[in-house]
Amino acid sequence: MDRIARECGLAPAALFPALDQLAAFGPLASWNVALASGDPYWELLARGDRGQLTAGRDLTAT
User: Fold this and answer.
1) Taking the domains of the chain in order of start, what are their residue ranges?
2) Which residue in 36, 40, 47, 44 sits closest to 15, CA to CA?
3) Quick one: pLDDT at residue 26?
4) How would DSSP label each residue in 1-62?
5) Interior/surface letters 14-41, b for 16+ CB within 10 angstroms, e for the rest
6) What is the pTM of this model?
7) What is the pLDDT of residues 11-54, one digit of tens each?
């Protein structure tokens, strides 16, 4: 997560809020962090579905 934040030009603490904003208003349907690896993963909205899905994050998901 820290590497991704750096590559995006964000402080590590700013990455989760940025992903939440993308999920709420942008192209992400949802996002989570894999507990085993610590890597983020996400699902993109289908074309034409923007704003129809409620996004959130669940840090307990694998």
Assistant:
1) 1-62
2) 40
3) 80
4) -HHHHHHTT--HHHHHHHHHHHHHHSSEEEEEE-TTT--EEEEEPPTT-TTTS-----TT--
5) ebbeebeeebeeeebbbbbbeeeeeebe
6) 0.60
7) 999 999 998 888 888 888 888 988 898 888 888 888 765 544 44
